[in-house]
Amino acid sequence: MAAYTAADVKALREKTGAGMLNCKDALVEAEGDFDKAVEILRVKGLKGVTKREDRTTSNGLVAAHVEGGLGVLVEINCETDFVAKGERFQELARQVLDQAVATGAADAESLLASDLGGRTVQAVLDEANATIGEKIVVRRVARVEGTSVASYLHRTSADLPPQIGVLVALDAEAAEAGRDVAMHAAAMSPTYLAREDVPADVVENERRVAEATSREEGKPEAALPRIVEGRVNGFFKENVLLEQAFAKDPKQTVAQVLKAAGATATAFARFRVGV
User: Fold this and answer.
1) Residue 50 predicted with pLDDT over 60
2) Is residue 141 within 8 Å of 108, Cβ to Cβ?
């Protein structure tokens, strides 16, 4: 006769995030002792941590914290959307985000090495990895600062946690415009804030491609400089946040929208899970 009930399996699964069969086996081994079953899952899970190191973590969530002129963005990945939906994983993400805010970590490496209740964040992740049974990683961390910071989190599916997160730092208080620009960035995927931020080698490569394409198309030699410059400017308009056509009103650039609100963007960060 089983030493556990269906409710015990459900409770153990919700607490640990482990699979149903693993929960049943742990309860059998523990002879129905719930706390012992949790420990069994932890021990067995930790043995499998290294085996999961090469697994792909293409699911997960993006979480943000904004307080005054500071914004923090983290991306935490797991293997399946089932785990990403779970309360255990989402609570872990909240812990990681709070730690990133508290420690001032500006990258994943320093966050993972920081102390969280006597253990490193990496050790906490390893334990979660063990009980949940999936590889879990902190992929990226970003911090932006300004007079004010706007944020936007976007769910690509209603039953998933946010998959896209954006922070936009402004040099003035302009909450509505800031949020509009954050939503714009979520949709339009800018790579750089301003054209001055685009590396010189990237610009030079775009110029080479534009020239080669124009010659291939048989454009007149005398017109090449103008055509190449136009295509390079087109690259800026597609990839630079401040030069993009504003999603809500394509007749204006993002820079123009912010200027009308009495502000400009000084920094931004955009994460999309797995990208």
Assistant:
1) no
2) yes
Task: Please tell me whether the overall predicted TM-score, pTM, comes out greater than 0.85 for this model.
Answer: no
In this predicted structure, the answer to whether residue 29 has a pLDDT above a threshold of 80 is yes
Number of domains comprising the chain = 3
Read off the amino acid at residue 32. G
CATH, residue 230: 1.10.286
Give the range of the structural domain holding residue 209, as residue numbers without chain letter. 199-239
Closest CA to 55 of 32, 36, 79, 31: 79
Bridge partners (DSSP) listed for residue 120: 115
- Asked if the structure places residue 73 within a domain, the reply is yes
CA 7 → CA 4, 25, 26, 33, 82, distances in Å? 8, 15, 14, 13, 20
Quick one: 128 and 210 in the same domain? no
Are 52 and 42 a contacting pair, CB within 8 Å? no
Q: Name the percent of the chain lying above pLDDT 90.
A: 66
Q: Which of 103-112, 120-129, 194-203 has the lowest mean pLDDT?
A: 120-129
Strands 245-246 and 164-170: unpaired
The CATH number assigned to the domain holding 26 equals 1.10.8.10
Cα–Cα distance for residue pair 36/42, rounded to 1 Å = 10
- Helix or strand or coil: residue 230? helix
The string of pLDDT tens digits covering residues 117-176 is 899 999 999 888 877 878 899 999 999 999 999 999 999 999 999 999 999 999 999 999
Question: CA 169 to CA 105: how far, in whole Å?
Answer: 18
DSSP category for residue 171: S
As a whole number of angstroms, the distance between CA 162 and CA 62 comes to: 6
